[in-house]
Design goal:
The complex is a heterodimer of chains A (214) and B (421). Chain A is an all-alpha fold. Chain A has helices spanning 3-8, 10-33, 46-56, 62-88, 90-101, 110-133, 135-140, 143-161, 168-184, 192-210. The longest helix of chain B is centred in the middle third of the chain and has 18 residues, at 229-246. Classes of the chains: A mainly alpha (214), B alpha/beta (421).
Chain lengths: 214, 421
């Protein structure tokens, strides 16, 4: 079995299983800890608050924007860029089509890929540099933050190197980092990509019941 | 682990529910919360970053309760055990530098309720008996008299008598079957007793019956501030017993920040059942009476005024529009400060901080931010502060920082601008 085949097939399927089972285990584990029933008569809907909380926190508030603009630009740049690459890069669509979903969709043109990659890299580098240059982030950062940033960076970098699909080894290295990233995901802070809906939602539900403005 | 640390950690693990677990799992250490915290803004000291204040609780969660912590423990990937030294090091962060104002939640991309989590974390600190002296003294007073300032019925009666003389309207104590039972905060009773006269005028005009209980007149719940579920429950139970004994239909929560949340939202959960009466905030009630035409507005106050939004009433209490509607009727030159409404800055003294002498300097630095916000409006002659605790913080802060404008309560303003019958 070639190295490429190994990272694309058995290792990938193992990594994907760890990713899916681990992430699901962790989310269910959080939910299972449970919340006590609220006996105070509600003024509004907790369910509506759960949804509103999730949507509201996508939009930064003006009042804080002049203090947090680096994070807003870096954060949105990185996440939009990353999702554009993940979902609309031509080799990814081909991979999803052939290996997982059996359906295809239009890919980004090359210039679109370049722009998305630039946003993703610039955003991630901005956030990572800030992690050690800003005294607040330096104080609260831990090894997990750095490993998550570096792993994501390496997945993106090796992905760009493999874009031309000119050498199998470049593609294999990219897949190897993807596999490592997937295995690391459920044990790490990368999980925020999933748990955010619970965090925003629980706060939103509490606010919603109290009739609080979000 | 020392016995002290164990008590705290055991309590942390007990109070961590799915909410706190989701918060601990979702924080990406972006530090944006610092930019919303008045203590960080005032000092620029990174240790005041709100999420950092939760670190011991989060450590305990990740080591003992988080899903997959078993596998991570085998691989040596869980945080170390929380130590007593660490808990003591964090104590000023948990008590002196968090007013539980909840402003950080607004800026947090994950929507983490840090204020609510600090409230739960303080339960662990109380269990371990690592509590600031000032708050401990307030708790001892509350246990003895129900009031954190040790205000007795005798002192209240003297203030009521004085207000009866002023208004010529008698206040009926322990009136059975009254529509409303009013609670007051110690700070109102001792510092701003005019509110009692204001209630008399307003409720007489509205034609509703009201009373004050001799057994439970105090609204302040120091148990919520200090983080003692047991004491919080005892203080709520005292109010519930008095209200049910007097068979009132409503209990009025006064212009006091956390008292409203403690009774209205946490209260039924503390005693394990719904109340037989409704809890209504005085601002809600006045707004309702105004909309029903029962307390029509008369001549407006012409001074240039602004409104301070007490965190527990506005941001965390949901009463955003009500005070503004009342103010529109009561003053002719009302101006909002920048960031008014749910994102307004805290006064710096909520959540027990003002009862903690050790935090005085920090509180004043935070209040200076508030003062700047008001001074930036320009020409403000009076600030309406519908929370007795905020009001005391304002008055002390204005003295220290030599600023000059009047600080008034909303109920008093509404009473003063009431149309003559």
């Amino acid at each position: 079995m070639s190295f490429l085949k190994f990272v694309e097939e058995p290792l990938f399927y193992f990594a994907a299983a760890v990713f899916l089972i681990g992430a699901l285990w962790r989310v269910i584990g959080i939910i299972r800890i449970g919340r006590k029933p609220d006996l105070a008569p509600a003024k509004g809907s907790g369910t509506a608050g759960f949804i509103a909380g999730n949507l509201r926190h996508f939009v930064p508030r003006n009042i804080f924007a002049k203090r947090t603009w680096i994070h807003i630009i870096g954060g949105y740049g990185f996440h939009f860029g990353l999702f554009a690459l993940l979902l609309f890069a031509a080799p990814h669509i081909k991979f999803f089509d052939e290996r997982i979903l059996g359906i295809s969709w239009p890919a980004l043109p090359r210039w679109g890929f370049i722009i998305a990659a630039q946003f993703a890299f610039a955003g991630l580098i901005m956030l990572w540099v800030r992690r050690f240059s800003d005294p607040v982030m330096r104080l609260i950062a831990d090894w997990d933050d750095h490993i998550s940033s570096w792993l994501t960076f390496l997945v993106m970098l090796t992905g760009c190197l493999a874009l031309q699909e000119s050498h199998d080894i470049l593609k294999a290295i990219h897949m190897l980092f993807v596999d490592v990233w997937l295995i690391y995901f459920p044990f790490s802070r990368l999980m925020h990509a999933v748990t955010f809906f619970l965090s925003r939602g629980y706060t939103g539900a509490t606010y919603g019941r109290k009739g609080m403005t979000l | 682990m020392s016995a002290v640390a164990k008590k705290a950690v055991d309590k942390f693990l007990e109070v961590i529910d799915a909410d706190v677990a989701a918060f601990a799992e979702s924080c990406v250490h972006c530090g944006e919360c610092a930019e919303a915290c008045h203590f960080y803004i005032a000092t620029k000291d990174p240790k005041y970053t709100p999420t950092y204040k939760l670190f011991p609780l989060v450590k305990a969660y990740k080591r003992h309760k988080a899903p997959l912590s078993g596998i991570k423990k085998m691989l040596g990937l869980v945080p170390a055990e929380v130590t007593e030294e660490e808990l003591r090091e964090w104590e000023p962060l948990v008590y002196d530098s968090c007013t539980m104002c909840g402003r950080c939640t607004l800026v947090c991309p994950m929507g983490i309720d840090i204020a609510g989590t600090i409230r739960k974390m303080r339960e662990g600190y109380v269990a371990a008996e690592i509590v600031p002296e000032g708050l401990m003294a307030a708790a001892v007073n509350a246990e003895r008299t129900g009031s954190p300032m040790g205000v007795t019925l005798k002192a209240l009666s003297a203030q009521i008598k004085h207000q009866e003389d002023e208004t010529g309207i008698p206040v009926e104590i322990d009136k059975k079957g009254a529509d409303y039972m009013a609670l007051l905060s110690s700070m109102e009773i001792m510092g701003f007793p005019e509110i009692i006269g204001a209630y008399s005028k307003l409720f007489k005009q509205a034609g509703l019956t009201w009373t004050i209980s001799s057994k439970a007149f105090e609204a302040t719940n120091v148990g919520v501030q200090i983080g003692s579920g047991k004491m919080a429950k005892m203080l709520v139970q005292r109010v519930v017993d008095a209200a049910e004994e007097l068979e009132v239909k409503h209990v009025i929560s006064p212009e006091c920040g956390h008292a409203y949340g403690a009774l209205r939202w946490a209260g039924p959960n503390m005693i394990g059942r719904e109340f037989s009466f409704k809890v209504v905030h005085i601002i809600e009630l006045l707004d309702q009476l105004r909309s029903e035409g029962r307390i029509p507005a008369g001549d407006k106050d012409t001074r240039r005024m602004t409104l301070h939004d007490p965190c527990q009433i506005i941001r965390r209490g949901g009463l955003l529009a009500e005070p503004r509607r009342l103010l529109d009727d009561s003053c002719s030159d009302f101006v909002e400060m920048e960031g008014a409404g749910i994102a307004n800055l805290c006064c710096g003294g909520g959540g027990g901080v003002s009862a903690n002498p050790r935090a005085e300097e920090l509180q004043l630095a935070a209040f200076a931010q508030k003062l700047k916000q008001i001074n930036d409006i320009g020409g403000v002659e009076a600030v309406v502060v519908p929370c007795a605790n905020c009001r005391t913080v304002f008055e002390d802060g204005l003295d220290e920082l030599e600023a000059d404008f009047e600080v008034i309560g909303l109920g008093e303003l509404v009473a003063e601008t009431l149309a003559a019958k």
